Amino acid sequence: MNQALSAHLPALQVIVPLLAAPLCFLLRRPSLAWPFAFVVTLCTFAAAIALFNQTADGTVLSYHMGGWEPPWGIEYRIDRLSSLVLLLVSGMAAIAMLYAGASVAEEVPRDRQILFYTAFLLCLAGLLGMTITGDAFNLFVFLEISSLSTYILISFGRDRRALTSAFQYLIMGTIGATMLLIGIGFIYMMTGTLNMADLAERLPPVYETKTVRAAFAFIVIGLSIKLALFPLHIWLPNAYSFAPSVLTVFLAGTATKVALYALIRFVYTIFGGDFAFGQVPLQYILLSMAVLAVFSGSLYAVFQASVKHALAYSSIAQIGYMVIGVGLFTVAGMSAGLLHLFNHAIMKGCLFMAVGCVYLRYHSVSIETFKGLGRTMPWTMAAFVIGGLGLIGMPLTSGFVSKWYLVLAALDHGWGGFVLIATIMGGSLLAVAYVWRIVEAAYFQDPENDENVEAPLSLLVPTWILALATIYFGIDTHLPVNAATGAALDLLGGTQ
Fold first, then answer.
1. Cα–Cα distances in Å, from 255 out to 53, 185, 188, 249?
2. Of 82, 164, 274, 476, which alpha carbon lies 20 to 30 A from 482's?
3. Would the pLDDT of 496 be above 60?
């Protein structure tokens, strides 16, 4: 029984949340929907842990849906890169769902809560499917599943601006998905296959064709929109700011990370690094956009009056750090980029959870609201400070580890590397500015009321899980560093 279950874990990773979504809707009672959804996310997390352990030594798992051999059938393919992202997505989903009980009850009208949990499970299934599939068109299908459910989830925010934010995201997301689909159609037209491994073998003979180059451009731009890479980021700030708190936590920790994973998969696995960085000047494009993302996102964050908006713009900057690592086209750079992908999800999840705790008490997330919260909400603000220190890159936090690896990777690139190092340092200094504005209000200004209004334990527990993880992975770096390095070696082999 255990062996049979283990053999079908790749399929179960996606099928469980996909089938659970309509079952959740049929429950008809919000009091049952939350524990049901929480159990489902724990099951997906357990499956992801098992797959991560199976691939930790470099083993690649190939699961053939319906018993059809690839490239004719759809293949689920799990290597060290996909297993790391699966672990991150399912883990963040489980922690976010632990947080969701009290948060959703407060922020989402009762008659919509079942729909919220249903859409959440569909979004999770889509993100997991994007990560695990070995079929290019199947990736697009799962992208649409996650995107459509995300548009619905954002619209559940109590602020009326949530509707316009969801619509803006829908427009931008549709443009990105359409461009991705056009690119996939072009490469299918040139190769006659959609299997990623098969595409990697069939594309080299037709690299010089205009069709393949156009396909590459469409795919990179389409996924860059989903990634919110500057200047294609305009959907992200409002989507994060006006969505329900638990959704902001989940999106910040997973959505852009999976989009970056998809970009890496297309660029490195399907087209190949030699084409993307040799025959096409992708490196200069990615690094230029990443540098602009770090500075523009950080500067915008400094001048925001809303803490959620500040953290949302901060995410644009942090995406820039990840893209710097990916764009270096070295094992060290890719390792650093993937490491920051993992660490940023934890840090930003902690910060948005802390902000959600404040929103629960005050129904506002302006910096004015944070005055004196160091005294009235000490545990919430302590967790916020830990997440903020990680964002800055202070030693003994996970943010320091990934930024240190980025600096080491950039050192190998001569004068260009020094520009990247200056960008990393400059972005960290700007992070000090926008984090300090919030900390200064919380600890050095008087509250309007000295009454203790600490968040309930049901919100503090998941918040502190991520706060402690921010510290733990800043001290014991074994798991994320080894996983990121192994994934980078799989992608680039001997490229240095």
1. 23, 24, 26, 10
2. 274
3. no
pLDDT tens for each residue of 108-167: 888 888 999 999 999 999 999 999 998 889 999 999 999 999 998 988 877 788 888 888
Is the CA virtual torsion 125, 127, 133, 135 positive or negative? positive
Q: Give the position of tokens 């997991």.
A: 128
Beta-carbon neighbour count of residue 489 at 10 Å?
A: 16
Alpha-carbon distance of 325 to 332, in angstroms, equals 8
- Is the Cβ–Cβ distance between 306 and 234 less than 8 Å? no
Backbone angles phi, psi at 454, to 5 degrees: -55, 145
The phi and psi torsions of 228 (rounded to 5 degrees) equal 65, 40
CB atoms closer than 10 angstroms to residue 214: 14
The model's pLDDT over 69-117, given as tens digits with 9 standing for 90+, comes to 777 778 888 999 999 999 999 999 999 999 988 888 888 888 888 999 9
The answer to whether residues 328 and 334 touch, using CB atoms and an 8 Å cutoff, is yes
CA–CA gap between residue 300 and residue 47 (Å, rounded): 39
Residues 254, 263: Cα–Cα separation, whole Å: 14
DSSP 8-state code for residue 313: H
Nearest Cα to Cα of residue 259 among 225, 298, 208, 235: 225
Rounded to an integer, what is the distance from CA 211 to the centroid of its chain?
31
Q: Nearest 5 degrees, angle CA 368-CA 245-CA 14?
A: 160
Q: How far is CA 300 from CA 23, 294, 356, in A?
A: 42, 10, 21
3-class DSSP string for 404-471? HHHHHHHHHHHHHHHHHHHHHHHHHHHHHHHHHHHHHHHHHCCCCCCCCCCCCHHHHHHHHHHHHHHH
The HSE-up count of residue 277 (CA atoms within 13 Å, CB side) is 18
Handedness of CA 53, 54, 60, 62 (dihedral sign): negative
For 306-345, the pLDDT digits (tens) are 888 899 999 999 999 999 988 888 888 899 999 999 999 9
Cα 234 to Cα 287: distance, rounded to the nearest angstrom:
19
C-alpha–C-alpha distance, residues 227 and 428, integer Å? 21
Q: CB atoms < 10 A from the CB of 464, how many? A: 19
Could you read off the pLDDT of 224-273 as tens digits, one per residue?
999 889 888 888 888 888 888 899 999 988 989 999 999 999 999 898 88
Distance CA(42)–CA(212), nearest Å, equals 41
Q: Residue 298 is encoded by which pair of tokens? A: 């950080």
Where does the pLDDT of residue 10 fall: very low under 50, low under 70, confident under 90, or very high at 90 and above? confident
326's tokens: 């990916």
